[in-house]
Amino acid sequence: MKSFLLSCKASRKILGAVVWFFLIFTKADAQSYDSLALYLSQNEDIPYYLAQAIAIYPHDPRAFTEGLVYENGFLYESTGLHGESSLRKVNLSTGEIIHLVEIEDQYFGEGLTIVGSTLIQLTWKSRVALLYHKDTLELEKTLYYPYEGWGVTYDGSHLIVSDGSNLLRFLNPVDFSLIRELPVISGGKLIDQLNELEYINGKIYANVWHADIIAIIDSQGGEVVGWIDVSQLEEKRNTREDVPNGIAYDAENNRLFVTGKRWSHVYEIQLPELIK
User: Mind listing the domains of the chain with CATH numbers?
Assistant: First the structure.
């Protein structure tokens, strides 16, 4: 059955109401929820898409996914939690774990990206990045990382990293020195809780933590140019932690994959036509 991404004003309003419900009944205080709800209820200028799967692949439901990248038929995945964090190479089609490296217990695995032959995995609060050889998953070195580690992606020149705030930072991939900071804005409101990242065709795709939403961000100015609602992809989850978190792009075949923490599936969804 053919599936698609729908532009949907009605769904925009429904999701806005859901976000407000979350604010009221969970007493969430993150500014991003407020900003997102305001955008959804007031701003109809930015494209909004409801994601539906065009292909579905198996995913380890025990994986607390924090970072995801794709290359040559394989997903490379970073999982979190102290004592459970890992780096994995996974066959996309079958979900088989080809290689798994357990991370030392003091580290909480976070975002993941590929730079050349190197996998770069962030850690949450340890201020350490772990660098592995992509082919062997052998740890080659660690580097000091001056921020909380959330998401990371690579635009071909710079690392782009998130720390849960509204800022995206562009770093030198060799020594992690700061190049520039980019505030993320939608409808005049700062959008924080930016988590897992993926760079695609000049745009930065970012999971917004606990919002079931992917923000599509202009990499030059920081404006949100589109939203993807992924709330309908996975069946109802049991805890507030099992949220969408994992975006990977197959540049050769123009395929976009998304998953979440402890999700049972990886979903391929279409790239929005207006922002390809």
Answer: 56-275 (2.130.10.10)
User: How confident is the chain (276 residues) per 10-residue block, as mean pLDDT?
Assistant: 42 46 37 48 73 95 97 96 96 97 96 97 96 96 93 97 97 95 92 96 94 94 93 77 93 96 95 62
pTM as predicted: 0.87
Say which residues have a Cβ less than 8 Å from residue 65's Cβ, sequence separation at least 6.
59, 77, 78, 79, 80, 196, 245, 246, 259, 260, 261, 262, 263
